[in-house]
């Protein structure tokens, strides 16, 4: 489903070049619930952004469902991302002037040939799944952090992606809400065989994934299956 070979990322700051990801290779299977862990600055977000088509590696190749994404143009990559990938961020990244409903609808702007009734059906189904139907007309400033993250999950899923990348999705949530969000993501994984790839420090997520990949200084030092 997802394959990366020899990924390297070098950041340049003035004269100084810093190699933050070093020759990283990995494979993730369809339907896996997997997380990157490791100290702050070890490169988790950098890897997630490259795998999720938000950023490009300095070297190396990435395939998602046998499509090579590293050779694509910027526009092709944006298109591919819209149709295949969902992204959930620590800080929710909702659009403040749009309602809950419109925020969820937003990624579908990229999806052509989707009839209006199908569009509505999908959004309403997701609003129900994340328990936000009654809040659908509110703007993000009128809902809580946990509710914002539920909207962000619905937004990440509306394009029916094969894979969802979630960078610290529970970091800004209280423990009870974090558990709810995690249960919701697991339910979606089971129901639709959606692959979830996390980067996290959260023990609650760590305790629930099938596989843990530990990064230190941009290298995989452990890749451990947590359950059969
Ligand atoms: N845009 C950038 N320009 C320069 N350096 C960067 C940039 N983004 C990240 N870095 C550096 O790359 C390294 C890896 O950062 P990254 O954000 O991937 O770590 P992380 O494991 O996600 O950390 P955290 O747990 O704090 O989120 C760090 O040393 C960071 O300073
Ligand atoms: Mg990070």
UniProtKB/TrEMBL annotation:
Q: Which Pfam families match?
A: ABC_tran (PF00005)
GO MF assignments: ATP binding; ATP hydrolysis activity; transmembrane transporter activity
Organism domain of life: Bacteria
Keywords, alphabetical = ATP-binding, Nucleotide-binding, Transport
Query: Cellular component GO terms, alphabetically?
Result: membrane protein complex
Signal sequence span per UniProt? none
Q: Which Gene3D superfamilies match?
A: P-loop containing nucleotide triphosphate hydrolases
Ranges for domain ABC transporter come to 5-228
Among InterPro entries, the record links this protein to: AAA+_ATPase (IPR003593), ABC_transporter-like_ATP-bd (IPR003439), ABC_transporter-like_CS (IPR017871), MacB-like_ATP-bd (IPR017911), P-loop_NTPase (IPR027417)
Q: What's this protein's family per the entry?
A: Belongs to the ABC transporter superfamily. Macrolide exporter (TC 3.A.1.122) family.
**Name of protein:** ABC transporter related protein
């Amino acid at each position: 489903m997802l394959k990366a070979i020899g990924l390297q990322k070098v950041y340049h700051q003035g004269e100084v070049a810093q190699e933050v990801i070093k020759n990283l290779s990995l494979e993730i299977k369809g339907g896996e619930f997997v997380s990157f862990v490791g100290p702050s600055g070890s490169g988790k977000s950098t890897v997630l952004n490259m795998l999720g088509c938000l950023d490009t590696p300095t070297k190396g190749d990435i395939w998602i469902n046998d499509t090579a994404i590293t050779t694509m143009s910027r526009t092709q990559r944006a298109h591919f991302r819209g149709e295949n990938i969902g992204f959930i961020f620590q800080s929710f990244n909702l659009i403040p002037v749009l309602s809950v409903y419109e925020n969820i609808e937003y990624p579908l702007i990229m999806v052509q040939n989707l009839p209006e009734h199908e569009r509505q059906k999908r959004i309403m189904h997701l609003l129900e799944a994340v328990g936000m139907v009654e809040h659908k007309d509110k703007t993000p400033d009128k809902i809580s952090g946990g509710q914002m993250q539920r909207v962000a999950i619905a937004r990440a899923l509306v394009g029916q992606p094969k894979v969802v990348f979630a960078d610290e999705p529970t970091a800004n949530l209280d423990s009870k809400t974090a558990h709810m969000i995690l249960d919701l993501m697991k339910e979606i994984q089971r129901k639709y065989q959606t692959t979830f790839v996390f980067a996290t420090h959260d023990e609650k997520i760590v305790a629930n994934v099938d596989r843990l990949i530990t990064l230190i200084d941009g290298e995989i030092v452990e890749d451990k299956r947590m359950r059969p």
